[in-house]
């Protein structure tokens, strides 16, 4: 049997710490291993998580799988072996490869094995010097104290229910917390390099299955589909609305909400979420960065776990006004260089996020200048904002986080060295044969949660109402109308600009740390102004420093970062791009003001 490894991701609690009064022990059981008679495993379910203490010859080692890393659990029974295979319970467990379990309702049960197996699924945060990732681990507890399966199952179910209550943060009862509402998933199959559907099936659906989170998946059929969907449906029927795609789909969802008469109640009661499959993915990267969740492109584990846990945080939105439209934005407004890169690199969509880098290099050669007037209401004191964090340098290797796809991946602890059946003796008699070991990650066969629905592009008979003229609601603006004079305390700058980029999230793309001091709900808009006259080398160092956010400290004649609560841009001429959350809007005067805490957004549960 392999000794449990002390991975740096696992909290190693000493015995003294164990008496910490804050840690409440809900369930405790002892497990034995046949081949290691001098080792005892004490497994406890505590307010911190699953504590696994191995005791050998008076020495003990403890590892705790934190509650926040556990996504779900399942009770199983042994699967019937094929004719010719031995029916001996012990030999059926020789080598974890051979352990086959099924649902208790399956018609393929091994009636000879009266054990109940509790599978506990966890995605453990693993730190190393240069990166941070999640590794999938399955802990299997075998309950076999009693002579009848029903009694063993009752025991396993007790652990499972307690675990579910703890995960849900609810009082411990005999019944699992209700799970009546589904998540609404709106997936854009065209986002980024077009892999959203595949990523959902391989990275998201199996986790939702393990977490027993039911969902209803709708694949968008065209642009504005998600917006109309949200505007016209009874959104209260869902536990939350999740955009799977780029920032553009969430922009549609958000604006669909503001097109509802009941926008305030809908936004308060129905949280939003994002699973990044686009090319920019600024909000998803921001959320992960703020909550210390690893963000690795196309790896959706952390944010899927966040959806399953149901923790939300308030988020600011910015009300934007152009000559003909009102919209609500959660990410950015751009004019000039960065917007040009964003829009013109669309043709390179197939290469994902790299399109921005390639186009940026091209655009530096033919630098454009834009004339206009920039006005803003400056926030004088931002000293109370938290200090910025530097982004983690992540290796771009494929992480174990993708272990669902990797049947060979190493499990976090492997106490099972192929032939261990865990046995307990009470008063010298073999009354109980419990097992505790972890099995290697394996590909999940489940692609949809029980009770989930899948609405494909080809499904006919959409119940969506035909588009009607939608009216934008939302909070009343404090700004004068776009063509009216601004208040006297506003600052005005007239001249030629290379760009004005305005954002209210830390990241505006996966690799672009735009506003290191920004928080999800701080009421601050960060405005980067780069004026004509800036040298190419200054611009180059700005773009190269974007990954680390170093430009945010720049404050010179040509480049400056200003915290504001509202802004107006009035471009001269008709040639150019204006973008809102990465989407092109009409070129002309535009203004915006921030409204704090209007939206609840799904965030990782990082509390210990
Ligand atoms: N089925 C569809 N076919 C075509 N376009 C769609 C469809 N569904 C949504 N869209 C539109 O695709 C646009 C881009 O979507 P999205 O933001 O998901 O991807 P992206 O632009 O690659 O990502 P990012 O915004 O992070 O750069 C949105 O404006 C959205 O309206």
Automatic annotation (TrEMBL):
Ranges of residues in domain DAGKc: 178-324
Pfam (any one): DAGK_cat
Transmembrane segments: none
SUPFAM superfamilies: NAD kinase/diacylglycerol kinase-like
Keywords per UniProt: ATP-binding, Kinase, Membrane, Nucleotide-binding, Transferase
Single GO term (MF): sphingosine kinase activity
Listed InterPro entries: ATP-NAD_kinase_N, Diacylglycerol_kinase_cat_dom, Lipid_Phosphate_FormReg, NAD/diacylglycerol_kinase_sf, YegS/DAGK_C
GO cellular component: cytoplasm; endomembrane system; membrane
Keyword Kinase: yes
Enzyme Commission no: 2.7.1.91
Protein localization: Endomembrane system
Keyword Ion transport: no
Protein name, as recorded: sphingosine kinase
UniProt source species: Diatraea saccharalis
